[in-house]
Structure formats: structure tokens, C-alpha cells
Amino acid sequence: MVGPGKVLLLENIRDLGSISAAGRAMGMSYKRAWSLVEEMNAAFRLPVVLPARGGAGGGGAAVTGAGLAVIAAYRGFEAAALEAGAGELAALRGMLADMSD
């Protein structure tokens, strides 16, 4: 339903006002970005992005209130998970090889 990539896409759409610009910022095609937006709009009860058709003034897209709530909930979950798993993450970091060479 949602993960770090989709949330970043939502944040980029929110900040850039465009699905194509958000996709470009992430190195993905408009078709892929649009496909992810469609998946999210279908997965949630309310749409998370409302696209506007192009025309004389150009197109664009807006993250809805539901989309903003998805971003906030995901980032809150992410912060809680990082806090809860801080010890395990430190242990994993301690097991990594030295990459300084």
C-alpha cells in the first residue's frame, strides 16, 4: 500500500505540484510515477493525489488532505520504528566491515 518510495513520491508531488516533476526528481518516468499514484489512490479510501489535466495553464497535481495524513502517519511510524530499533541498528552497524579504504 505504501512504503518509503511512495511516501517520497507524495512528498515530491506536494512540494513540486506535478507528478512528472516528482518522478523526474526521483529518476523515474512519468508513466511509473503515475502508476504509483493510481495504486495509492486505489488502495486508500480517499484519493491521496488529485491530478489536473494539462491545457493553456499546464497541468499539475495536488496531494490531498488524505495524502498529507498518509505522509504524516508513515513518517511517524518510521520515527517510532527507528527509535524502538535503535539498539538493533547499532548492533548491525557494529557488524559492518570497515569501508574507509
Tell me what you see in this structure:
This protein is mainly alpha-helical and 101 residues long. The protein has a single domain, classed as Arc Repressor Mutant, subunit A, CATH 1.10.10.10. It has five helices and two strands, in the order αααββαα. It has a two-stranded antiparallel sheet. β1 and β2 form a beta hairpin. The longest helix has 20 residues. The mean pLDDT is 93.
Question: CA-to-CA gap between the ends?
Answer: 40 Å
The outline comes out as: elongated
Report the top-level CATH class: Mainly Alpha
Domain module tally? 1
Total number of strands? 2
- List the uncertain runs: none
Strands side by side in the biggest sheet: 1-2
Could you tell me the mean pLDDT? 93
Main pleated-sheet profile: 2 strands, antiparallel
Query: Strand content of the residues, in percent?
Result: 5-15%
Q: What is the overall number of helices?
A: 5
